[in-house]
Amino acid sequence: MTTGATWFGHPRGLTVLFLTNMWEQFSYYGMRALLVYFMTRQLMLGQAHASYIYGAYTACAYFTPIIGGMMVDRFLGKRRAIIIGASVMAAGHFMMAFEPLFYLALITIALGNGLFLPTLPSQVGDLYRRDDPRRGWAYNVYYVGINIGGFLAPLLCGTIGEVYGWHYGFGLAGVGMLAGLAIYLNGQRWLPPEPERIASAAAATAAAPRGFDRRTVLTLVAIGVAVTVFRSAYEQVGNTVALWADSGLDRQAGNWLIPMTWFQSLNPLFVMLMTPPLLAWWRRRADAGHDQPPARRMALGALIVGAAYLLLALVAWQAGGKPAGWMWLALFFLIFTFGELFILPTGLGLFARLAPPRLGTTTVGAWFLIIFTGSLSAGVVGSLWSRCEPASFFALLAGLASLAAALLWLLHPATQKINQTHQNTN
What we know:
It is built from 16 helices and six strands. It is mainly α and about 425 residues long. It has a single domain, classed as MFS general substrate transporter like domains (Growth Hormone, Chain: A, Up-down Bundle), CATH 1.20.1250. The strands form three sheets. A two-stranded antiparallel sheet has the order 1-2. The protein has a two-stranded parallel sheet with strand order 3-6. Strands 4-5 form a two-stranded antiparallel ribbon. A hairpin with a 2-residue loop joins strand 1 and strand 2. Helix 6 runs antiparallel to helix 11 and helix 13 packs antiparallel against helix 14. It is globular and about 55 Å long. About 0% of the residues have low confidence.
């Protein structure tokens, strides 16, 4: 934990982690904005095949943090892991510029991500005492950093990839990763000290607090199942929704054709615009004693995302095979993003808050296991796109998000007990 000078009311280390994460996300979303188009247009892969690859890649990118988190806690340490992970990811992004290295590049990025991804958010928690009220809000601030990078990436990497060539777009993503590494290295003095590492499973078990019992684990697993269902719908924005933006949307704005990758910037743009007023509203409710419990907040978010997909289903049905107006997709992203802000930062903060003191990276890595399973299921669900009408497919996604909402709502009593136990042990 660090104390002392602050920027914008938070420890200065949060700004360093915010900017590092922003550029890492620029590289990830820059590559992701191009990936499905590159596979279907340049590599000439079928849509179902490309969807499986997309799902497998995103799943692997979130599976490696599980192993990486354990390596960080027991052997490498957080700072060394971020430096190694960022360097490996940058190499993978530059390899994407060479077509014969396509699959090797995807593997390289996923491996580097395994060290980088669980380590950075776990350092956010290390900046604060466990009873610091700013700790929970810090993850929403950190989430804005993700989305600034995600906003810029399709505009820059996507445009360059579409206009000048896919490989140049992938190369720019690598430059973004190096920028994030440079910021991290230059901001070392503001970061929390390295916690003591645990060298054995027995020591790790002994280090865990009483509140991290079997009931906690089982409840978090149940939350993981619900979020996996949710992400099978959520992850379609970079896959089938992106394909619909190309084939099922009228992108003409006057005499100008909107680049298809630009729509991927709407989600992070709305995150940046909505987060400050939403945080202010949550803070006022908390001060008035009406703070919303985590599971119910997450359930509401999943339901809102389901409503966004239902909107697309209605638009596609009404269009009847003709191109729909691009403003409908903009409205979809507005509703979609509002729901996302209720569920994803809340889930990450919940996992980080329940982490044992010296197993923070491992526990955050467990959150990325959920993203792994959700990404795999999203790849399978996405493969149905070429077999369904768009309206039916989007209705299926609405149903999946609504199912996740119901599961999360049912988990509210269990999560409340865990929170109370955790507060009593601290």
